[in-house]
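Incident log, structure service

09:12 report received: a user says their structure output differs between two submissions of the same chain.
09:20 pulled the input from the user's history:
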Amino acid sequence: MAEQTRRPRVVDVLAADRAWEVPAEWVAGVRARLREWGDDPKALRPPQAGAFPDFVDGTPAAVWFTHQVAPLLSGWIPVLHGEYADLGAVLAGEFYRPAVRIGGAGYVVRVAPTDWPLQVVSGARGFPEEGRRQALELSREVVSLFVDAPPMRARARALVAGFDRVLADREATRMHVAADYETIAQFWRTTVLSERERTVLPELAGPASALRYSLDALRDAHAKLTAVIADDDGTDFTQLLARLIRVAGLATQPAAVGQILGIAGWDVEHALADLRKGFDPHVWLAGNTAWLGQAVALGNEGLAREWAAAATRVSVHLAGVLEKGVWPDPEVPDLGAFFRLLENSGPGEAGGVAQDQAAPVQLVWGSGRADGTAERLQETGPADEQAAAAIEAALAEAADVPPADPKTEVATGEAGPAVMPADVPAEPKAATDEAAGSEPATATGADDGSASYELDALAELDALIGLESVKEAVRRMVAEIRTNQRRKDFGLPTQDRARHMVFVGKPGTAKTTIARLLGRIYHQLGVLEKGHVVEVDRSDLVGPSVGTTAPLTAAKFREALGGVLFVDEAYTLVPENMPGDFGLEAVATLLKMMEDHRDQCVVIVAGYHREMQRFMESNTGLASRFSKLLAFSEYDNDQLVAIFELQARQKGMLYTDGVLAKVRQVIPPAPRGHNFGNGRFIRNILEEAISNQATRLALRDPETLTERDLRQLLPEDVKPTASMRAEDYLFQKPGT
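09:34 re-ran on a clean worker, output below:
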């Protein structure tokens, strides 16, 4: 029977709104392209046999890569259901020969290293430059096969844009064919993707970034679903997370989770302590399924899908990524029961399949080994021989071989797991940040394919709200440093520029925060020995009498050696119309020590734009020492509200849309006063709201207060603070 007359095959991605009927023409087109690679003797292949397990010898890297990326382009830790749930196996069936397949009306959960788009680039790192360039080009071409597939479209387009950006840049391409793999991976983590593309591919920033994305997605999905379908347990996000942790078999929250949650992590610990008193995971899971079923029955299938997909990601993180052990079959939600709910609620697609759950890894073809390789097969519930036969027929059709007898080659749910899960190397827990309240960081993957929760200042930079021009400037500085370091490796001349900088902007625009991150970034790059930041102002550098200023300034500079000296309101060192001021001696001392220790310390001077311009003109040596200027824009209303939300979450507070609307009301309209506090203004608003909440709750009997009462902010709590200066509200001409 011709393929176009058959019933359409379906792949249903849990996070999507609906299943996708996979067009036969699209499948045929992809298979034809894979066949072209297979017939091309010049196509990139690993030199050793058996490099691609379960694939016939001689399979091109592009075919193997297509099998790996097909599910992962649909999302980070995607859940797939339907006859084409293992779409990669269907497309690569001519080359794919797995020893065992599992059939059943179930689902597939896929996990992979966070640098999964670079697997071919990684695998070819021992090849000559021509082979490494081919690896880069074919990676782009494979991903482009999926730009017209609805469930994969957004992520595929973002990746294609990234690969195109690299291939259009001579230096970036050269790095991909000549640099070590860690340099390439770090370049992708920090530089290649745009801000919008990073939101589509959050895991590319590393394991910590992927965990943050998963936690934030679950928090948002839980808030949306509980707003329309009340949770009988009344669980907020931290209580939900505590239940997920207990169901995963953990006694306490992983350090990486606590680092991301900040103060809210204490609420999780308190919730975990409460759950030690008679919590039954099975009872709770049944109730959770019933709750999702209620949402589906009342027409909120999209919200239920979003919640289930987010809960699955967090469950996988908790049970497999953050702790030693195998990659898990996620416990929350009960995916088998949930898909049955979806099918029973309307015209669903019957006959789902469950295929092998593989974790693609960095494959080093030149060494003949796959670092950290582990392949798992997942049992997914009661057997369904008809569904198993459907997937076998699709694979056999692609390979032009007779379908296998499902009774002999298809392992069913009734028979138990066909292959016991292999152990997966554990990822180290997150390092503890010494700076309380600092943002968690992205893991930096080691060259052997392992990942650690090492603090990554570049990931923290990307997580900041706004500051797009500043972020881009920092990324360019990092790229310049890395390129110069690589030039040194080849004995080529370098173009090292002074790293001292001028920061201009209003108060509260994160100038000090960026200075601290730059110190850590330069330390991680090996530019600075320590990376610490010494923050000073006029009072720290200028003495009260003749002869005291130079020693004070020199002492502070020596304290900053190996790190950053951050001079806030630097223009106060040279006050107007005071030619004999001692601050001029401080400036002269700074210039002398900057020259004597030019590679041992980075000096950053900061202040208002107009005043800093006058400061730079006060001494002819300043302009030549400070070659780079970063301008910090004022936050717009949306960004200020987002800062309020972030700070409220960090303090463990709950808020409604009404609270956010009230915050918008108290933000003065643009143009704002010269001294408007931006982020500091929002911090004051939040602190005042918490104080007002305490006053409101003090009128009630303390015994009647619940945890939610203590954490819930109401619109009436949000008021302008009495301590704010008048210029925060005056319509003055902004600083320029």
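09:41 both user submissions now match this output. Likely a transient worker issue. Closing.
09:42 reviewer note: The longest strand covers residues 602-607. The chain has a mean pLDDT of 77.
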